[in-house]
Specification:
alpha/beta, 3 domains, Rossmann fold, elongated, 434 Repressor (Amino-terminal Domain), six-stranded parallel sheet, DNA-binding, homodimer
Chain lengths: 328, 328
DNA sequence: CTGAAAGCGCTTACAG
DNA sequence: CTGAAAGCGCTTACAG
């Protein structure tokens, strides 16, 4: 295994010179030496030992990604796609990515400490305890979709209120006046509350109020409930695309059709929704941009540790496809 | 930051004793010392520096996962789920996972060398060049779904021939006598050829031969082709679940219904297929087991480097759901 | 069962 | 622009 010492020897310089070239501190090395050293590096296909670099510099070019839960998390396309884009963006910056599933606080600290990671990205649901990291560790953290009111954190999120509002407006535009909402974890998630509020506020402005029993926590009897409250054509706002598919499936099993009997509008705009027929009308968020923004923000903290914590809110847009019936 | 030296000092022993305890070489330490040292480790919540460990031991508890392609690879649920299970199994063994998207040979060598990874898992499509690793590097490698005839590699695959055969038999059992096959990359992938052969051989035994124009390379005109060759009810064997969904969608757009007008049978049995209606009949492979087998095999090579290269073939089974019409 | 010595391959901090 | 010295935090290999 060729080391910095071998390169230095062959170049007739000190190891420090080689180190400077490796780290692209070109202003500290003569042009002549840069060229000579790089040539030898290439000749031997020399790869620096990351562990040695880490040990002496007390940091490493590793970004840790923490996913709440276990492997099943990646069955949800949202998480899988998000993970993919995060890794890609991290890789594009010359850093390596470690991925960990976690279930508790100490797991995170261990992984971060032992590898001296440069930074971390969190995604999935995190309880308040998790958010405290920010204070206990000095390495930069970025959360995604963590909408916490109490604790200031660096976060990349989307405009959930607007998403709910766009969904409502679209349905109103298509002449709907009979609504239901299907979600999960209403109480535990600020995200859902924002979508709900955006939806209800917009309907409210049009003089429509949603009754409490039209707000449904998804389970196996959701279709039954929807059918019960269906006086006329009912428009359902589901809080994710996957949830939309599940609802459509349940309705189909009861012999009802979308969009003929029920309209439905989802949230996320996952690739998978293009494979269904009818194609899902949905509130679209751009995961590619979201991941990029998360990594951008992380590297800003990496370069400027004293930068104040930011909560970045990305835009959403409505994508009209085939699951909302035009009643006009 | 507390180090092995601090622990040793407080325990009144050498750093070697602490190192032995950390590495669980308990037979080299007195019971008394084990207890004392472990208590102090816990007290300070001491976490070993992985870089230091790696530098002196010339290895690290890192497994690298290489995915051919870029972030888009994870849009395919198969890849995403597989990745999740792999990470989970690696983590369960106390190792950390680095994930890399790769497009060429040298990327792999760099990553493996610089971190002194203990082993690597490959998934996605790999050309012959990639398979050569096995000889150029001494760290253990496991491929998944790499069906190479020429070069011996360690691989976890499934019984694709049987999968094709099961699909054919199921359709025969349901009274079908009119068949088509939809796949991708027929020529580049031994996997597809095995599925094709299993399917055709089984039909052949029943006295049925598939005409060449019934073997279709998927594109946007696939439904048109299927409709053209549909004399009676046509049974389509698609080489993946995702492909099945795409075919169903195309057929729906032409006004045809599954399973009324066409029957379809997929391959993989992804979670996502339970969300569609009708639910997909498919050849099921167990990704959880596949990932576990891959990690098991990798660790066997890690522990017994001289073990001969194995090609493990996992079983598949047919899962009958709602996309195949019973013609009897 | 125990420990002193040397070294892994780099970077930091300093001096010139 | 250049380099000698020291050290990062562990483990290996050896001796007892």
């Amino acid at each position: 295994m060729v080391t910095i010492k071998d390169i230095a020897q062959e170049a007739g310089v000190s190891t420090m010179m080689v180190s400077r070239v490796i780290n692209k501190r070109y202003n500290q090395v003569s042009a002549e030496n840069i060229e000579r050293i790089e040539k030898i590096i290439k000749k031997y296909n020399y790869i620096p030992n990351s562990a040695a670099q880490s040990l002496s510099s007390k940091t490493s070019k590793i970004i840790a990604i923490f996913i709440q839960g276990d492997a099943n998390s990646l069955e949800h396309p949202y998480n899988a796609v998000m993970l993919g884009y995060l890794i890609q963006n991290i890789q594009a910056r010359g850093y390596d990515t470690m991925v960990h599933f976690i279930s508790n606080y100490s797991d995170v600290c261990n992984k971060l400490q032992s590898w001296k990671a440069s930074g971390a990205v969190f995604f999935g649901m995190f309880e308040k305890d998790f958010l405290q990291f920010q204070t206990n560790e000095k390495i930069p953290f970025v959360f995604t979709d963590c909408y916490s009111s109490s604790i200031p954190i660096a976060n990349i999120g989307i405009d959930n209120y607007k998403g709910g509002s766009l969904a409502a407006q679209h349905l109103l535009d298509y002449g709907h006046d009979n609504f239901a909402i299907v979600g999960e974890y209403f109480n535990e998630s600020l995200l859902n509350q924002q979508r709900l509020k955006g939806f209800c506020d917009t309907l409210s402005k049009a003089g429509i109020n949603i009754e409490q029993n039209h707000i449904i926590n998804f389970d196996s009897s959701t279709a039954t409930k929807l059918i019960e409250i269906q006086q006329a054509h009912l428009a359902v706002f589901a809080f994710s695309d996957i949830l939309s598919l599940k609802v459509i499936k349940q309705l189909n099993e009861h012999g009802y059709r979308v969009p003929d009997d029920f309209s439905i509008i989802g949230f996320d705009d996952l690739f998978i929704c293009h494979l269904t027929s009818p194609e899902l009308t949905t509130v679209s968020q751009n995961l590619s941009k979201k991941a990029e923004a998360a990594v951008d923000l992380l590297f800003q903290y990496l370069n400027y540790p004293d930068m104040p914590l930011q909560n970045i809110v990305l835009d959403v847009e409505l994508v009209s496809r085939d699951t909302v019936k035009n009643l006009l």
